[in-house]
Amino acid sequence: MFTFRWHRFIEATKNRKPVGFLIEAVERLSSAGGLALDLGCGAGVDAKYLAENGFLVEAVDLDKNSIIQTRNICRGLPVKIIQKDIFDYNVKIDNYSLIISWNTLSFLDKEKAKNVLINIQEGLKTDGLFVFGLFGPEDDWAEKHSEMSFWTAEELKEILSRMEFVKILEEKQKKPGATGEIKFWHLIQGIAKKNEVKT
After folding, report:
1. Domain boundaries, the chain
2. In CATH, what number does 6-194 get?
3. Each residue of 77-101: pLDDT tens digit?
């Protein structure tokens, strides 16, 4: 079992800025608003940003510290906060204008993460956007944590076959993380858009 100190992570990230890819995704949408889903909402920063930009937001996280912090930061905003494992969350089909899952899916094993990715694809409306952050196979954690999942860009594109990857960035470097731990990071991040079904 991964013994990540989530309370330290929440404390370290509660004052960060919204994810840059999320800001870009909101700007790319033809009209702001609709329903957004934050799977693994962490400190609630991105859920707050979405709510302040016209979205009704569902913010999901299993960690109690995340739920408490997200309630605090999103007080008075249209954010429904749900304490649940993202694998068990019911992502309704064709329901969301935007879904973000930032550095969360890799904490599930490969099969569970794959199922959530498929649910995300199905849950987006046509032209809806998915903002993602995953860990790649060269990440330091890959050797130590077989219970996690590590992805190549090609694997992601294969699973999300109805998605057009409008932006994808692969980063490989040794640097400190949010809580100060220095390690080699292999990150796959970007924005994907759900295409219309061709008949």
Report:
1. 6-194
2. 3.40.50.150
3. 999 999 999 999 999 999 999 999 9
Residue 56 is encoded by which pair of tokens? 């009704």
Using a CB cutoff of 8 Å and minimum separation of 24, what contacts does 145-154 make?
Answer: 145/2, 147/1, 147/2, 147/109, 148/2, 148/106, 148/107, 148/108, 148/109, 149/105, 149/106, 149/108, 149/109, 149/110, 149/112, 149/113, 149/114, 150/106, 150/186, 151/106, 151/113, 151/188, 152/188, 153/188
Q: What φ, ψ does residue 53 adopt, rounded to 5°?
A: -110, 30
Query: Could you give the CA distance from residue 28 to residue 22 in angstroms, rounded to a whole number?
Result: 10
For residues 65 and 115, what is the distance between their CA atoms, to the nearest angstrom? 26
Q: What is the pLDDT of residues 126-157, one digit of tens each?
A: 999 999 999 999 999 999 999 999 999 999 99
CA distances from 82 to 9, 11, 125 (A): 19, 19, 22
State phi, psi for 22 to the nearest 5 degrees. Answer: -70, -45
pLDDT classification of 3: cutoffs 50, 70, 90: low
Q: Looking at the DSSP assignment, which residues form a beta bridge with residue 171?
A: 187
Task: Give the separation between CA 28 and CA 26, rounded to whole angstroms.
Answer: 5
Whole-number percent of the chain with pLDDT over 70: 94
